[in-house]
Design a protein that fits this description.
Radius of gyration: 18 Å
Low-confidence stretches: 4-9, 165-171
Strand order of the largest sheet: 1-3-2
Structural class: alpha+beta
Number of helices: 10
Oligomer: single chain
Distance between the termini: 31 Å
Helix content: 40-55%
Strand content: 5-15%
């Protein structure tokens, strides 16, 4: 919480942070780096349009940064390294955290085994794993009958940066 207080007290930024909604949004973003806009709206209790307006001001004031993940915009404290923010935003979508952790814990698993263990369809698995392969976090080795998946060097660090709520399976 002291980090948020330090950011709020930064010279030249007090005008932005003085507003209660922006202070609440900054607090939520620091507590949950990578939180998406709709969750910020729910947790702050503010109307969607109001939250969007204040997020845009915080972005222009360089107090937060955002990463567009296609479906959502994820928000991070301004001091988050951009590549790390992009990886965390990518990993923190849908079933990707579960799939990435499974591959990290059981390298060489086949697609069919992962789908069965996590109760996920092949289509969901593919749509989740392809961006991770493209980003170089997972290595896909194609075989004659099945593909096997192996973690790349950066996967463990990226998974370690996921917030605790990324473990929650949403149905």
């Amino acid at each position: 919480m002291s980090d948020v207080v330090d950011v709020l007290a930064a010279p030249g930024r007090s005008g932005l942070a003085d507003q209660p909604m922006r202070a609440r949004l900054l607090e939520l973003i620091h507590a949950q780096p990578g939180i998406h806009a709709s969750k910020l709206a729910r947790e702050s209790g503010g109307p969607w349009g109001t939250v969007q307006y204040h997020l845009s001001l915080l972005g222009r004031g360089e107090l937060v940064q955002s990463v567009d993940t296609g479906r959502e915009r994820c928000f991070f404290p301004a001091d988050t390294e951009p590549r790390r923010a992009r990886l965390l935003a990518l990993l923190n979508q849908g079933r990707r955290p579960e799939i990435a952790r499974f591959i990290q814990e059981k390298p060489g698993s086949r697609q069919v085994d992962i789908c069965e263990a996590l109760d996920v369809s092949r289509k969901t698995f593919r749509s989740s794993v392809v961006p991770l392969v493209e980003e170089g976090l997972i290595n896909e080795r194609r075989g004659l009958q099945s593909n096997r998946y192996f973690p790349e060097a950066g996967l463990a660090d990226a998974i370690g940066g996921l917030p605790p709520h990324a473990d929650v399976r949403l149905l």
